[in-house]
Amino acid sequence: MYVKNLYEGSTTVFQFHGSEETPFHPSFGVRQGDPLSPLLFNMVIKFLVRKLRSYIGVDVDGTLITTSAFADDLLLFASTKFGLQSQLDKTVSFLRKCNLAINTEKTFTLSFLVDGRNKRLKIVDSKFTVFNCPLRSMKPGDSFEYLGVYFRTDGLMFFSPVEQVKKWLVMLAKAPLKLQQRLFLLREHLLPKLLHLSVLSRIRIGVLNKVDRVVRAFLKKHLDLPHDTINAFFHAAFNDGGLAIPSFRANIPEMRLKRLNNVKLAFSSSAMAGFVNDVLHNPIVKLCPSRCRVPPARIGACPPE
């Protein structure tokens, strides 16, 4: 009743150059800036995911993957052309009842066909529609961005964290900022963004070590620190007398293991759980955190190289 009264009695006013337009009552959407709005939107998407047919999807090691949703990004999976179009139609029908619509300009499809002769997957051009409007079909070599990570039709795009961090550090050094401001941007914005990209990419341990060396060299130069400053000073927490700069060598393996554990909890299927267990017990994966010798509760420190 509270939510109903909140939206039935709300009005919106446009302001332009100090003058206000006539108030009007919005007929759809959620209130801008209201902390309740994300919760209401998530509830709608949750109902949508539940309504989609559970028997249409893609089998992954015995688990049927039907949908994947994050905020306003939605992925639909199907093993047949008819199945995917059926999922699209059901999604459109549900969203219409909620006064929502799919942005066809930002929506695309990616279709694979098994090439048994050459033992590979082929990307094919399949036609799908929303509101009788054809959707863009991805072609070989096309790229797209999802949750801040860039993909091509054949998988993850090449990502070089070393080159990226060097580029950002050059921009940070040229910015007209105080030293404390540079440290804050580096610690709270630039490096966390790079951590997100690195966790979802294929990167070797040697590359992670190089990223840490580049960041430490930048800090030594701009803080006028001795060349032999120990690594722990950069990565230790504030309470321990450090700069609290995240270490890629220590954090990335831990973050990947955490994501895999979350996947294990999200899927109840024994097949998927077994698959995740195999990954978690892979010697290559276990090697990363064990060599860092970092307690699970504190992953900011990094051992000397």
TrEMBL record:
Gene Ontology biological process terms from the UniProt entry: DNA biosynthetic process
SUPFAM superfamilies: DNA/RNA polymerases
Ranges for domain Reverse transcriptase: 1-151
One Pfam family hit: RVT_1
Name of the molecule in the record: Reverse transcriptase domain-containing protein
Organism: Oedothorax gibbosus
